[in-house]
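pipeline stage [seq->struct] | target=Leucyl aminopeptidase family protein | organism=Croceibacterium salegens | residues=459
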Amino acid sequence: MSTKDDLIQPDRGQDAVPIHLVSKDGFEDWAKTLSATQRAGLAGQKFDGSGYQVGIVPDGDAWFAVGGVANPDELSSWCMAKLAEVLPSGTYRRANGEPGPALYGWQTAQYRFGRYKEDSGEGPRILLTKEAKKASAAVAEAKAAMLVQDLVNTPAEDMGPAALEEVAEKLAKEHGAKVKVTRGDTLEQEFPMVHAVGRAAARSHAPRMIELTWGNPKHPRLAIVGKGVAFDTGGLDIKPASGMLLMKKDMGGAAHALALASLVMGSGLKVHLQCLVPAVENAIAGNAFRPGDVLRSRKGLTVEIGNTDAEGRLILGDALALASEGEPDFIVDFATLTGAARVALGPDLPALFTRKDETAEALLAAGKAHDDPVWRLPLHGAYAEWLKSDVADTNNTHSNGFAGSSVAALFLDKFVGEGIDWAHFDTFAWRPAAKPGRPKGGAACGLRAAWGMLQDRYG
C-alpha cells in the first residue's frame, strides 16, 4: 500500500493540533473569537474561509490550523483533504466536532505512488476521532481505493495478466478465498474470446481467466466482473501513439473488481462471492485476431470482429456468460470500455447501465451518499440493431458513431443471463488533474457507489 494504514487513530486525549473548520459566510463571526494578532496573521495569509483554504494561527507557544469549507455542519469526503496535503507532519483533531466523512479524504489525500521513486513528501499527518465505526469503514474504503490507484498506476510490464493473478491470490490468502485460473488450451476451449484477444501477447503475459470465490453458498450469489486488459495496443486496428499513452490503465475495471471484492470479504458481507477477471494483453503479432474474424463465445453466440480495438467487450462477454451460469442474485461489472462515455461525461463520472430502474436508483443514491457520483445512461434496445452482422450472430462494433457507450453495453447485455439483475460501470479509472484528496493518476470511480449499494442490499 502506498500510504500508511495508521493515518486515522482513536482519540484518547493525546496531544494533537486542533483544526477549526469555518465557512466563508461564518468566518467573520468566528474571527471575532481570535486576538487581533491572530486575525492579522490570517489576513496576511489571505484566509477568508473559502473552500480548501488552509491557515496557520499562532496560539501562545503553540498553534492551530483552520480550514475553509462550504458548511462545517455538513462535511464531505474532501472537506479536510487539503489540510491533509499541506499541513506539517503530526497529529491532529477537529476542534468542536468529529471529521465524519472527511476521514476518507484525509487518507486519500496522502496517497503516494512510490514503486519506482522515493517519496519526498512530508508525512504522515494523523487524524484522531472518537467515532470508531466510521473510522473503520473509512480506513477500509480508502485502502480499497488506493489498491485501485496502485494497480492502475503500475506500468503494463509490471501489471500484466500474471501480476493481476498474483493480486487475486494475495487477496484470497488474506480472506480465506479460493482462486481458480484457466489458461492455455483449456482457456481456448472454455473462454474462446478471452483466448483470441490475448493470444498474440508474449508468453509472460499470456491470457487467463481468474476466478476468486468466497463465502457461504447458502447466501445470495454476487458476481463481480472486471475488464483486465493489461495493455491495449488496439490490436491490428492499432491505436496511434497518443492513444496508447494511458493504456496501462485499461485494466482499471479489474482493479475496481478486485478492490470491491476485498471490501466484500473484509466486511464479512453475507453473500456468496464470485469475482471474475479476464486478463489479457491486446498485442500485435502474426497470430493476433483480425478484423473480419468470427469468434465463438462461451455462451455459444458467434461474434464478427468489426474492430480489434473493441476487445474489452469480448473478454467481458465470456466472463459475464460464466457469471450468469451461477444464476446470481446480482452481477456488477467494471470496465474502461468506451471513449464515448468520456466524451459524454468527462473523467469524473462513470457511465452506469442497468436493466432495472430500482437498481440504478440504489446505485445513484449510494454514489451521492458516498461522494462518488455516477450517471445513468440508457440501455436503449432499438440501438441493438446496429450490431447486426451478415455472417455471425452479432458484430462487436457499430459503424455509425452514435451512442457508443450504450451500444457497447447492449453488446454486453447479450451475454448476461435472462432476468438477471445486472449493472455495468463504464469508468475512466484515471484522474487527469489533481483535486484535494484525489491525486492525478489512477482513480477509483464508481467503487464507493457500488460498495454503498451492496451494503444497503446485503448488509
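stage status: PASS
auto-comment: Residues 46 and 55 are 9 Å apart (CA to CA). The mean pLDDT is 97.
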